[in-house]
Amino acid sequence: MRIVLDAMGSDHAPAVDVEGAVRAARRFGQEIILVGRQAEVEAELAKHDTSDLALSVVHAEQVIEMGEHPSLAVRNKPISSMVVGMGLVREGQADAFVSAGNSGGTLAAAVTGAGRLGRIRGIRRPALSTIMPTVSGTALLLDIGANTDCRPEWLVQFAVMGSVYAERVRGVAEPRVALLSNGEEDTKGSAAVQEAHQALRQLPALRFIGNVEGKDLLMGAADVVVADGFVGNVVIKTAEGVASMLLQLLRTNIKATPITSVGGLLAKPAFRRVAKVLDYREYGGAPLLGVNGVVIIAHGRSDPLAIENAIGVAVDAVASRVVERIREGIEGVPGAEEPEGEAGAED
Protein backbone atom coordinates (compact mmCIF):
# COMPACT_ATOMS: atom_id res chain seq x y z
CA MET A 1 0.00 0.00 0.00
CA ARG A 2 1.29 3.46 -0.90
CA ILE A 3 0.03 6.58 0.86
CA VAL A 4 0.73 10.07 -0.48
CA LEU A 5 1.25 12.80 2.10
CA ASP A 6 1.15 16.48 1.22
CA ALA A 7 4.40 17.38 2.98
CA MET A 8 3.67 21.11 2.68
CA GLY A 9 0.18 20.96 4.16
CA SER A 10 0.19 21.75 7.86
CA ASP A 11 0.67 25.11 9.54
CA HIS A 12 4.21 24.05 10.44
CA ALA A 13 5.16 22.18 7.28
CA PRO A 14 7.28 20.42 6.35
CA ALA A 15 8.80 19.57 9.75
CA VAL A 16 5.59 18.34 11.37
CA ASP A 17 4.40 16.49 8.26
CA VAL A 18 7.70 14.72 7.74
CA GLU A 19 7.96 13.61 11.37
CA GLY A 20 4.40 12.32 11.22
CA ALA A 21 5.20 10.40 8.05
CA VAL A 22 8.26 8.81 9.62
CA ARG A 23 6.22 7.74 12.63
CA ALA A 24 3.45 6.37 10.39
CA ALA A 25 5.85 4.43 8.17
CA ARG A 26 7.33 2.80 11.26
CA ARG A 27 3.95 2.11 12.88
CA PHE A 28 1.93 0.88 9.90
CA GLY A 29 4.66 -0.61 7.75
CA GLN A 30 3.35 1.03 4.57
CA GLU A 31 5.12 3.12 1.94
CA ILE A 32 4.72 6.87 2.40
CA ILE A 33 5.30 9.19 -0.56
CA LEU A 34 6.10 12.72 0.58
CA VAL A 35 5.15 15.38 -1.97
CA GLY A 36 6.59 18.86 -1.64
CA ARG A 37 9.69 20.97 -2.15
CA GLN A 38 12.29 18.27 -2.35
CA ALA A 39 15.20 20.08 -0.73
CA GLU A 40 13.11 21.14 2.27
CA VAL A 41 11.52 17.72 2.69
CA GLU A 42 14.81 15.85 2.44
CA ALA A 43 16.41 18.23 4.94
CA GLU A 44 13.71 17.31 7.45
CA LEU A 45 13.99 13.60 6.66
CA ALA A 46 17.72 13.79 7.45
CA LYS A 47 16.83 14.65 11.05
CA HIS A 48 15.22 11.24 11.57
CA ASP A 49 16.30 7.61 11.52
CA THR A 50 14.62 6.38 8.33
CA SER A 51 16.59 3.17 7.91
CA ASP A 52 14.38 0.29 6.75
CA LEU A 53 11.41 2.65 6.26
CA ALA A 54 9.60 2.91 2.92
CA LEU A 55 9.76 6.67 2.43
CA SER A 56 10.22 8.53 -0.85
CA VAL A 57 9.99 12.13 -2.03
CA VAL A 58 8.27 13.56 -5.11
CA HIS A 59 9.12 17.15 -5.92
CA ALA A 60 6.36 19.76 -6.16
CA GLU A 61 7.53 23.34 -6.30
CA GLN A 62 4.28 25.16 -5.53
CA VAL A 63 2.23 25.26 -2.32
CA ILE A 64 -1.44 26.13 -1.91
CA GLU A 65 -1.55 28.36 1.16
CA MET A 66 -4.32 28.37 3.76
CA GLY A 67 -5.67 31.77 2.81
CA GLU A 68 -5.90 31.18 -0.93
CA HIS A 69 -9.12 30.83 -2.90
CA PRO A 70 -9.39 27.03 -3.37
CA SER A 71 -10.51 26.76 -7.01
CA LEU A 72 -8.28 29.57 -8.25
CA ALA A 73 -5.27 28.20 -6.39
CA VAL A 74 -5.72 24.72 -7.87
CA ARG A 75 -6.09 26.24 -11.35
CA ASN A 76 -3.13 28.59 -10.99
CA LYS A 77 -0.80 26.17 -9.24
CA PRO A 78 -0.76 22.96 -11.30
CA ILE A 79 2.53 21.82 -9.77
CA SER A 80 1.48 22.34 -6.17
CA SER A 81 1.94 19.55 -3.64
CA MET A 82 -1.83 19.01 -3.53
CA VAL A 83 -2.34 18.70 -7.27
CA VAL A 84 0.77 16.60 -7.85
CA GLY A 85 -0.05 14.33 -4.91
CA MET A 86 -3.64 13.86 -6.02
CA GLY A 87 -2.37 13.06 -9.51
CA LEU A 88 -0.31 10.16 -8.15
CA VAL A 89 -3.50 8.58 -6.82
CA ARG A 90 -5.34 9.25 -10.06
CA GLU A 91 -2.58 7.60 -12.08
CA GLY A 92 -2.58 4.51 -9.87
CA GLN A 93 0.86 5.21 -8.41
CA ALA A 94 -0.59 5.53 -4.91
CA ASP A 95 -3.64 4.33 -3.01
CA ALA A 96 -4.60 7.37 -0.92
CA PHE A 97 -3.88 11.06 -0.41
CA VAL A 98 -3.53 12.81 2.96
CA SER A 99 -3.23 16.55 3.57
CA ALA A 100 -3.40 18.94 6.50
CA GLY A 101 -3.51 21.85 4.08
CA ASN A 102 -6.27 24.12 2.84
CA SER A 103 -9.36 21.88 3.06
CA GLY A 104 -11.13 23.76 0.28
CA GLY A 105 -8.03 23.37 -1.83
CA THR A 106 -7.95 19.63 -1.17
CA LEU A 107 -11.59 19.37 -2.23
CA ALA A 108 -10.96 21.45 -5.35
CA ALA A 109 -7.88 19.40 -6.26
CA ALA A 110 -9.90 16.20 -5.86
CA VAL A 111 -12.70 17.21 -8.24
CA THR A 112 -11.10 19.76 -10.59
CA GLY A 113 -7.70 20.54 -12.04
CA ALA A 114 -4.97 18.44 -13.55
CA GLY A 115 -4.81 15.80 -10.83
CA ARG A 116 -8.51 15.43 -10.16
CA LEU A 117 -9.93 12.10 -9.09
CA GLY A 118 -13.48 13.09 -9.96
CA ARG A 119 -16.57 11.81 -8.20
CA ILE A 120 -17.82 8.28 -7.80
CA ARG A 121 -20.37 7.73 -10.55
CA GLY A 122 -23.81 8.74 -9.33
CA ILE A 123 -22.55 10.93 -6.47
CA ARG A 124 -23.86 14.46 -6.91
CA ARG A 125 -21.60 16.19 -4.39
CA PRO A 126 -18.69 14.99 -2.25
CA ALA A 127 -18.98 15.63 1.48
CA LEU A 128 -16.43 16.61 4.09
CA SER A 129 -16.76 14.61 7.27
CA THR A 130 -15.31 14.58 10.76
CA ILE A 131 -15.24 12.28 13.75
CA MET A 132 -16.90 13.78 16.83
CA PRO A 133 -16.43 12.36 20.34
CA THR A 134 -19.61 11.46 22.20
CA VAL A 135 -20.35 10.14 25.68
CA SER A 136 -20.59 6.62 24.26
CA GLY A 137 -17.85 6.70 21.61
CA THR A 138 -17.79 8.69 18.40
CA ALA A 139 -20.10 9.86 15.64
CA LEU A 140 -19.40 10.71 12.03
CA LEU A 141 -20.72 14.16 11.08
CA LEU A 142 -21.10 15.19 7.45
CA ASP A 143 -21.14 17.56 5.59
CA ILE A 144 -18.99 20.07 7.49
CA GLY A 145 -18.30 22.60 4.77
CA ALA A 146 -18.14 21.31 1.22
CA ASN A 147 -21.74 22.22 0.36
CA THR A 148 -23.30 25.11 2.27
CA ASP A 149 -26.67 24.72 0.53
CA CYS A 150 -27.88 21.19 -0.10
CA ARG A 151 -30.62 19.55 -2.10
CA PRO A 152 -32.56 16.71 -0.45
CA GLU A 153 -30.99 14.06 -2.69
CA TRP A 154 -27.51 15.20 -1.66
CA LEU A 155 -28.38 14.73 2.01
CA VAL A 156 -29.65 11.25 1.21
CA GLN A 157 -26.39 10.39 -0.52
CA PHE A 158 -24.39 11.80 2.41
CA ALA A 159 -26.33 9.44 4.68
CA VAL A 160 -25.53 6.43 2.52
CA MET A 161 -21.83 7.33 2.26
CA GLY A 162 -21.58 8.02 5.97
CA SER A 163 -23.22 4.71 6.82
CA VAL A 164 -20.83 2.80 4.55
CA TYR A 165 -17.81 4.55 6.06
CA ALA A 166 -18.97 4.02 9.65
CA GLU A 167 -19.53 0.32 9.03
CA ARG A 168 -16.59 -0.53 6.82
CA VAL A 169 -13.86 1.69 8.30
CA ARG A 170 -15.05 2.56 11.82
CA GLY A 171 -16.31 -0.96 12.48
CA VAL A 172 -19.82 0.06 13.57
CA ALA A 173 -22.34 -2.73 13.00
CA GLU A 174 -25.58 -1.43 11.48
CA PRO A 175 -24.77 2.23 12.13
CA ARG A 176 -27.64 4.46 13.24
CA VAL A 177 -28.09 7.31 10.76
CA ALA A 178 -29.86 10.57 11.61
CA LEU A 179 -30.54 14.01 10.16
CA LEU A 180 -29.54 17.00 12.25
CA SER A 181 -32.60 19.19 12.71
CA ASN A 182 -34.34 21.58 15.10
CA GLY A 183 -36.75 18.92 16.28
CA GLU A 184 -37.23 15.17 16.31
CA GLU A 185 -40.52 15.25 14.38
CA ASP A 186 -40.35 14.53 10.66
CA THR A 187 -42.06 17.87 10.01
CA LYS A 188 -39.17 19.83 11.57
CA GLY A 189 -36.20 21.29 9.75
CA SER A 190 -35.75 23.04 6.42
CA ALA A 191 -37.66 21.95 3.34
CA ALA A 192 -34.59 20.02 2.19
CA VAL A 193 -34.29 18.21 5.53
CA GLN A 194 -37.98 17.30 5.54
CA GLU A 195 -37.83 15.92 2.01
CA ALA A 196 -34.62 14.02 2.74
CA HIS A 197 -36.28 12.58 5.85
CA GLN A 198 -39.07 11.07 3.78
CA ALA A 199 -36.64 9.70 1.20
CA LEU A 200 -34.43 8.10 3.84
CA ARG A 201 -37.46 6.34 5.29
CA GLN A 202 -37.74 4.52 1.96
CA LEU A 203 -34.24 3.00 2.07
CA PRO A 204 -34.57 -0.35 3.85
CA ALA A 205 -30.83 -1.04 3.69
CA LEU A 206 -30.14 2.05 5.82
CA ARG A 207 -30.76 2.13 9.57
CA PHE A 208 -32.33 5.58 9.56
CA ILE A 209 -33.54 6.63 13.02
CA GLY A 210 -34.99 10.01 12.08
CA ASN A 211 -34.00 13.47 13.28
CA VAL A 212 -31.70 14.36 16.16
CA GLU A 213 -31.29 17.76 17.74
CA GLY A 214 -28.02 19.48 18.53
CA LYS A 215 -28.30 18.52 22.21
CA ASP A 216 -28.42 14.83 21.23
CA LEU A 217 -25.42 14.84 18.93
CA LEU A 218 -22.76 14.58 21.63
CA MET A 219 -24.86 12.20 23.71
CA GLY A 220 -24.33 9.39 21.21
CA ALA A 221 -27.85 9.34 19.81
CA ALA A 222 -26.58 8.33 16.35
CA ASP A 223 -23.46 6.92 14.72
CA VAL A 224 -23.79 9.03 11.55
CA VAL A 225 -25.29 12.52 11.60
CA VAL A 226 -26.11 14.31 8.33
CA ALA A 227 -26.37 18.06 7.83
CA ASP A 228 -25.74 20.60 5.11
CA GLY A 229 -22.25 22.08 5.04
CA PHE A 230 -23.26 25.38 6.64
CA VAL A 231 -24.91 23.79 9.68
CA GLY A 232 -22.25 21.10 9.97
CA ASN A 233 -19.42 23.61 9.93
CA VAL A 234 -21.06 25.75 12.61
CA VAL A 235 -21.62 22.65 14.76
CA ILE A 236 -18.04 21.42 14.57
CA LYS A 237 -16.51 24.85 15.19
CA THR A 238 -18.86 25.40 18.14
CA ALA A 239 -18.02 21.98 19.57
CA GLU A 240 -14.30 22.71 19.32
CA GLY A 241 -14.79 26.01 21.12
CA VAL A 242 -16.90 24.48 23.89
CA ALA A 243 -14.35 21.70 24.46
CA SER A 244 -11.51 24.23 24.74
CA MET A 245 -13.56 26.43 27.06
CA LEU A 246 -14.46 23.56 29.39
CA LEU A 247 -10.87 22.36 29.66
CA GLN A 248 -9.67 25.89 30.36
CA LEU A 249 -12.36 26.46 33.01
CA LEU A 250 -11.44 23.20 34.71
CA ARG A 251 -7.76 24.09 34.80
CA THR A 252 -8.51 27.54 36.21
CA ASN A 253 -10.98 26.45 38.87
CA ILE A 254 -9.01 23.42 40.02
CA LYS A 255 -6.15 25.76 40.95
CA ALA A 256 -8.46 28.25 42.66
CA THR A 257 -8.09 26.89 46.24
CA PRO A 258 -5.80 24.43 48.08
CA ILE A 259 -8.67 21.96 48.48
CA THR A 260 -9.59 21.93 44.79
CA SER A 261 -5.90 21.66 43.91
CA VAL A 262 -5.62 18.48 45.98
CA GLY A 263 -8.83 17.17 44.43
CA GLY A 264 -7.44 17.99 41.01
CA LEU A 265 -4.33 15.93 41.69
CA LEU A 266 -6.46 12.96 42.71
CA ALA A 267 -8.64 13.34 39.61
CA LYS A 268 -5.72 13.95 37.23
CA PRO A 269 -5.87 10.50 35.57
CA ALA A 270 -9.57 11.00 34.79
CA PHE A 271 -8.92 14.49 33.40
CA ARG A 272 -6.20 13.08 31.15
CA ARG A 273 -8.56 10.45 29.79
CA VAL A 274 -11.22 13.06 29.07
CA ALA A 275 -8.68 15.37 27.44
CA LYS A 276 -7.57 12.51 25.20
CA VAL A 277 -11.16 11.86 24.10
CA LEU A 278 -11.53 15.54 23.19
CA ASP A 279 -8.14 15.75 21.46
CA TYR A 280 -8.55 16.08 17.67
CA ARG A 281 -5.06 14.63 17.20
CA GLU A 282 -6.28 11.22 18.31
CA TYR A 283 -8.66 11.06 15.34
CA GLY A 284 -6.04 12.22 12.83
CA GLY A 285 -8.17 13.14 9.86
CA ALA A 286 -11.48 12.50 8.20
CA PRO A 287 -12.40 11.37 4.70
CA LEU A 288 -13.65 13.40 1.78
CA LEU A 289 -16.44 11.02 0.84
CA GLY A 290 -17.80 10.72 -2.68
CA VAL A 291 -14.59 11.26 -4.65
CA ASN A 292 -13.19 8.44 -6.71
CA GLY A 293 -10.28 7.74 -4.41
CA VAL A 294 -9.30 7.82 -0.75
CA VAL A 295 -8.68 11.40 0.38
CA ILE A 296 -8.11 12.21 4.05
CA ILE A 297 -8.13 15.77 5.36
CA ALA A 298 -6.35 16.59 8.61
CA HIS A 299 -6.50 19.76 10.71
CA GLY A 300 -4.19 22.58 9.70
CA ARG A 301 -2.70 22.79 13.18
CA SER A 302 -1.84 19.09 13.17
CA ASP A 303 1.28 17.95 15.01
CA PRO A 304 3.23 14.75 14.21
CA LEU A 305 0.78 12.59 16.18
CA ALA A 306 -2.17 13.96 14.21
CA ILE A 307 -0.37 13.39 10.90
CA GLU A 308 0.55 9.86 11.95
CA ASN A 309 -3.06 9.09 12.84
CA ALA A 310 -4.38 10.70 9.64
CA ILE A 311 -2.18 8.35 7.64
CA GLY A 312 -3.57 5.52 9.75
CA VAL A 313 -7.10 6.57 8.76
CA ALA A 314 -6.03 6.40 5.11
CA VAL A 315 -4.55 2.93 5.58
CA ASP A 316 -7.80 1.69 7.14
CA ALA A 317 -9.92 3.27 4.37
CA VAL A 318 -7.86 1.63 1.64
CA ALA A 319 -7.84 -1.74 3.39
CA SER A 320 -11.63 -1.54 3.82
CA ARG A 321 -12.13 -0.68 0.13
CA VAL A 322 -14.41 2.15 1.17
CA VAL A 323 -14.60 3.68 -2.32
CA GLU A 324 -15.81 0.41 -3.81
CA ARG A 325 -18.32 -0.06 -0.99
CA ILE A 326 -19.74 3.45 -1.52
CA ARG A 327 -19.99 2.76 -5.24
CA GLU A 328 -22.01 -0.36 -4.48
CA GLY A 329 -24.09 1.31 -1.78
CA ILE A 330 -25.16 4.25 -3.93
CA GLU A 331 -26.67 2.08 -6.67
CA GLY A 332 -30.41 2.48 -6.75
CA VAL A 333 -30.45 5.44 -4.35
CA PRO A 334 -32.72 8.27 -5.60
CA GLY A 335 -30.75 10.98 -7.37
CA ALA A 336 -27.87 8.69 -8.30
CA GLU A 337 -29.06 7.77 -11.77
CA GLU A 338 -26.84 10.17 -13.67
CA PRO A 339 -24.18 12.49 -12.20
CA GLU A 340 -24.48 16.20 -12.79
CA GLY A 341 -21.73 18.19 -14.45
CA GLU A 342 -18.34 17.92 -12.78
CA ALA A 343 -18.72 19.35 -9.30
CA GLY A 344 -16.01 21.44 -7.78
CA ALA A 345 -15.32 23.11 -4.50
CA GLU A 346 -17.63 25.98 -3.82
CA ASP A 347 -16.24 29.32 -4.92
Q: Secondary-structure blueprint of this entry?
A:
Layout: E1 2-6, H1 15-28, E2 31-36, H2 38-45, E3 55-59, H3 70-76, H4 81-90, E4 96-99, H5 103-111, E5 127-134, E6 137-142, H6 152-168, E7 177-180, H7 191-200, E8 208-212, H8 214-217, E9 224-226, H9 229-254, H10 258-266, H11 268-278, E10 285-289, E11 294-298, H12 304-319, H13 322-330
Key descriptive features of the protein:
single chain; 347 residues; alpha/beta; Isopropylmalate Dehydrogenase; 2 domains; 13 helices; 16% strand
Describe this structure in words.
This protein has 347 residues and is of the alpha/beta class. It folds into 2 domains: 1-126 and 290-347, Isopropylmalate Dehydrogenase (3-Layer(aba) Sandwich); 130-282, Isopropylmalate Dehydrogenase, CATH 3.40.718.10. Helix content is 43%, strand content 16%. The protein contains 13 helices and 11 strands. It has an 11-stranded mixed β-sheet, with helices on both faces. The longest helix is centred in the last third of the chain and has 26 residues, at 229-254. The protein is globular and about 60 Å long.
